[in-house]
Amino acid sequence: MNQLSDRINNLATSATLAMAAKARELRAEGKDIIGLSLGEPDFNTPDFIKDAAIEAINQNYNSYTPVDGYVELKEAIITKFKRDNNLNYTLPQVVVSTGAKQSLANIAAVMLNPGDEVILPCPYWVSYSDIVKLSDGVPVEVQTSIDTDFKMTAEQLEAAITPKTKMIWYSSPCNPSGSVYSKAELRALADVLKKHPNIYIVSDEIYEHINFKGGHFSMAEFEDMFDRTITVNGVSKAFAMTGWRIGYIGAPDWIARACNKMQGQITSGANCIAQRAVITALEADPSSIKYMVDEFKERRSLILNLLSEIDGFKTNEPEGAFYVFPNISSYFGKTIKGKTINNASDFSLFLLEEALVATVTGEAFGNKDCIRISYAASQKEIIEAIKRIKTALS
Ligand code: PMP
Ligand code: GLU
User: Fold this and answer.
1) Are residues 324 and 376 both part of a single domain?
2) How far is ligand 1, taken at its centre, from the CA of residue 173, in Å?
């Protein structure tokens, strides 16, 4: 008999992590899988950050930290928010967590009551909907399409709002579409939200620095949105520090206090060595990571060019992050190599089995017609992967 709680039984497995695990499994069986499923930079953490961690160990940073993070780290975060985002947060408004994923889980836990609705423009980052459900919230998906560059319009937002709407969560640059909301687009959404003062906003800016056109804008920069916005960020992507597990928020005091209380009961705060290293990372000028952004930009051109040579892949031009999100629905209903492809999950599985390339189905991101391909891989791997996909489909 299944003795587990309804909570865990109803929770979906993270599709990105599941695909990465499956790729690992197949590799262990001797299959030559190219992993384009996980959103994880393939660079090493920069040496100046590693050195800071080694120094922290040698200086005996080994005790519990303040639950919401070392004051020096929170000060570095405040300086970063001011320097990069023109945002003025104060110490009580900043909370450091075990990855931006935990920041998001804290927010859901402290903001949502059963039945509260959270608007998620689709495609959204894989974990949003299950994090919301875990806190008894109700995800409300708003479908966008490649024709609007996968961005939600003000009209769509307006139409999705009900008396139960509590929050809206989005990422910009977006995982998985790579879309970046401009200041004007965010203002149009803010104008709608202005009419609904009880709706709070999660602006997930973890890909802020991986932006190929420049001009990152934070919702909290609008004065009339500052008190209603939780700005989420972290070091996983920009500094190639996924395994270090540090994320953070800037938020209204009362929300930050609640997140602090929450993690005081569940984690006691983030890892002390990683926190010390992140002080150094955030104090560095963003130009210190430009070599990675430049390389991602080259890979974006490469993969877009290669995909344009395959029939049936329709892509937008991602402006940030390191994903392409092609619409592959023209393959639905077709049988290739004896395998019938009825949906994006079938297609992604087909690519894994027949091309030995791991991708993620768009269904995990609330979109049934697309798959996500991560180009956080070497150019050599990208070239080989797309060659294999082309061969398998031809
Ligand atoms: N938000 C988005 C949009 C992401 O892609 C990720 C990926 N890991 C996260 C949050 C969580 O990041 P982390 O927990 O590694 O800080
Ligand atoms: N955010 C990355 C991704 O979307 C890492 C995996 C995860 O945290 O789920 O692939």
Assistant:
1) yes
2) 12
